[in-house]
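Hello,

Following up on my earlier ticket. Below are the two sequence lines again, exactly as submitted.
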Amino acid sequence: MRLKDKVAIVVGAGQSPGEGTGNGRATALTFAREGAKVLCVDRDLASAQETVKMITDGNGFAEGFQADVTRSDQLKEMGEEAQRLWGRIDILHNNVGVSISGGDAELLDITDEAFDRCVAINLRGTIMACKHVLPIMRAQGSGAIVNISSMAAITTYPYVAYKATKSAMISFTEQLAYQNARYGIRANVILPGLMNTPMAVDTRARTFNKSRTEVEAERDAQVPLRKKMGTAWDVANAALFLASDEANFITGVTLPVDGGASVRRG
Amino acid sequence: MKRLQGKTALITGASSGIGRAIAKKFHAEGATLLLMDITEQVVEGGEPTHRILDVPFFQGDVSNETDVEEAVRRATEPTGRLDIVVNDAVVRVGKPLTETSLEEWNRVMAVNVTGVFLMCRAAVRRMLGQEIRNEARGRIVNISSQHGMIASPEDCSYGVSKSAVVYLTRQIASDYGKDSIICNAVAPGKILTGKGGRAVEPRWIDYSHERTPLPRLGRSEDVANAALFLASDEATFITGENLMVDGGWMAR
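Thanks for your patience. The regenerated structure is below:
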């Protein structure tokens, strides 16, 4: 088992309504399968608890925790809870992000409120989660952080806040990496491309009043590799690799998981 | 289940250093191997890799078209497939522009660029004729370098050659993605392979430590772990990428 005896926090371990498995849930399940104890954190506790149940039903270790990433005090409690439960934090996985569901829009249509909400969730949420977990990792002299940005950061994307916040996450992760390397802490960022997840597909189907099949077909056609979107498990596998000791010399890296879309750019 | 169980892999430059570490890792993970190198001698010393692992070895030069075609033919013999190719064979002269002879430049390009081209071409031709398995028809992992992305101090030809490998990787990924061929690169930072000479001169070691955020320099096994990830079924939606294994060098 590749994460044996490790303690992981997955922020955004629940998922949006829809079909199949989301990135956060797939990652929590993968970490647990590889032996980690996982604190499944979500704003929606019931959804986090569903993930916990899937893990414990498979004889893994997990607990649920309710936190809204826009609330720094709750992120602090999240770190304390993991330490209280299992005495350490080896892995922090920041998966929370919104675009359309946060009110994101094209520049001429975006409101101050929607922009601020997206920034608070996508960027400030990740940064503050790191802020509150870092002291624990520094005291241990080890830790691995995996942030989930998006291919949108480096390719074309229509809406303002998602593009800007996901780009900022790359710069933030690089800074996190070089400023904390001396403490034995690594930080890397994954850029998922077009994924077949509830958030990406079902949210669009609802918002644009299309069928799931229609949204799937449009997105599949844009992917260079096999003309097919990726799944949450592709992101989970990349997160597992970066979080594990196999990646002990990898830090500050941006890893697209996008079926070659960013190579082709458009 | 082992992570490369049932897969057939051909590794170039497999006798020493990073290539040797990749061969050991892939062997431990259940792959059927053919190792290729211009010599079975181990640069850092020790028993030849193929003897330790008890796997076939093909002595050949990656810049030679006939050798490359023969290596691919032999690699596919045991299973009828070629699932993975790792291009690790490399030479370097370690000289700045003004001191590099045309002969030296040509040799570096022949091995580091033409060698990768020849092997990728032979491998993709072969892979296109085989069935898709676990979402991939075949996979290529090229060993590039941080050099070519950032300056390779006083080693002009090496940096240029490695930059070409990164581009070739993207080109193959883009052109053959529709055929379910996956092509990625791993870019090592400063790796201590056990090789002596220029690689471990104090001025380069000190420079590397100063420049690498993580407290230690790299090991061949760090690169082998990344190659394993990209060669395995875990990485089926990653293609055209150049994965840095550099202790944070490029992030600074």
